[in-house]
């Protein structure tokens, strides 16, 4: 077995602090000292891709060489955590079909019938979350004639958005998709050496992807969303940033609409116009 040789190239404390401030100001993600090893590992890949000598060299170009603007997208792509799964935190999807949809459709303007139901996945990563929504709503449409829906899916990270738009996933990732849904909505690749699945075009067309930084002062999104999923992104922000983001999201949710956050995230204790409905589910009051 080959001996493990630990990397010798490290970020100075000053550079890590400067990078941390830059990243937190730009995308809200906190960079406490425990993340230093992770950031170093990811940025070493950038150092290699740019053919630079060291992390020190990388930081010099970033902070002193005026290359911050052009490198920002790559830097954010390198430091964001994009872990996601189909049917992640499945209770939300159960709640959506069992409670949220019947409730929304009992409202006078009947979203889904009189106009398309609008759902926003506000930190969508490579698309497993919005495509899960597409399958769940596709199933709902089978039980209700004329049911229409649109899913908006945004993220700050450009490389995940490119993957999301393609809608092609390693077959392993589709393990959590129930068999009947997989049969109806996923198509397997012919290449059995690299097995992948792809969502059927009819569902892909219902998901509209776009770039959006939750730190931006305004979101260029409709203000009458019926449901917003903002899951497993807030956890990387500090409390004040979480509150600011949540209050902006509330402006895009119509009264009576639902907000889903990750099960390890909290909205409680804030003065937002939200009523707690059940675990990690809130209603716009
Ligand atoms: C761990 S993934 C969660 C994906 C999905 N919501 C889920 O729960 O499976 C977090 C996502 O948040 C995105 N993100 C982080 N900061 C963001 C910001 N300021 N604006 C928009 N998206 C952000 C990341 O790029 C990443 O794709």
Automatic annotation (TrEMBL):
SUPFAM superfamilies: Chemotaxis receptor methyltransferase CheR, N-terminal domain, S-adenosyl-L-methionine-dependent methyltransferases. GO terms for biological process: methylation. Keywords: Methyltransferase, S-adenosyl-L-methionine, Transferase. InterPro entries: Bact_Chemotaxis_MeTrfase, Chemotaxis_MeTrfase_CheR, CheR_C, CheR_MeTrfase, CheR_N, CheR_N_sf, SAM-dependent_MTases_sf. The keyword S-adenosyl-L-methionine applies. Pfam families: CheR, CheR_N. It is an enzyme of class 2 (transferase). Its EC number is 2.1.1.80. GO terms for molecular function: protein-glutamate O-methyltransferase activity. It catalyses: L-glutamyl-[protein] + S-adenosyl-L-methionine = [protein]-L-glutamate 5-O-methyl ester + S-adenosyl-L-homocysteine. Transmembrane segments: none annotated. S-adenosyl-L-methionine binds at residues 82, 84, 88, 129, 155, 213-214, 231-232. Signal peptide: none annotated. Residues 11-285 form the CheR-type methyltransferase domain. It comes from the Bacteria. Methylation of the membrane-bound methyl-accepting chemotaxis proteins (MCP) to form gamma-glutamyl methyl ester residues in MCP. This is Chemotaxis protein methyltransferase. It comes from Magnetospirillum molischianum DSM 120.
């Amino acid at each position: 077995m080959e001996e493990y040789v630990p990397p010798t190239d490290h970020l100075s404390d000053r550079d890590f602090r400067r990078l941390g401030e830059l990243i937190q100001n730009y995308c809200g993600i906190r960079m406490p000292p425990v993340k230093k090893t992770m950031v170093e590992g990811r940025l070493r890949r950038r150092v290699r891709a740019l053919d630079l000598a060291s992390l020190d060299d990388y930081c010099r170009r970033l902070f002193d060489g005026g290359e911050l603007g052009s490198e920002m997208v790559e830097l954010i792509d390198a430091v964001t955590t994009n872990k996601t799964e189909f049917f992640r935190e499945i209770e939300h999807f159960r709640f959506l079909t069992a409670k949220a949809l019947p409730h929304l459709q009992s409202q006078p303007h009947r979203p889904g019938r009189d106009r398309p139901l609008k759902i926003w996945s506000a930190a969508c990563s490579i698309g497993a979350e919005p495509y899960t929504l597409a399958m769940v709503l596709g199933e709902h449409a089978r039980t209700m004639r004329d049911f229409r829906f649109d899913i908006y899916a945004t993220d700050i990270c450009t490389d995940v958005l490119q993957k999301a738009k393609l809608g092609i996933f390693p077959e392993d990732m589709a393990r959590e998709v129930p068999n009947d849904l997989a049969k109806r909505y996923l198509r397997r690749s012919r290449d059995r050496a690299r097995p992948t699945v792809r969502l059927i075009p009819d569902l892909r067309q219902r998901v509209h992807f776009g770039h959006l930084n939750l730190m931006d002062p305004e979101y260029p999104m409709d203000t009458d969303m019926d449901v917003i999923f903002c899951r497993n992104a807030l956890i990387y922000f500090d409390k004040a940033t979480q509150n600011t983001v949540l209050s902006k999201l509330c402006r895009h949710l119509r009264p009576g609409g639902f907000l889903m956050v990750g099960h390890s995230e909290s909205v409680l204790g804030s003065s937002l116009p939200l009523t707690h409905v059940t675990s990690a589910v809130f209603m716009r009051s």
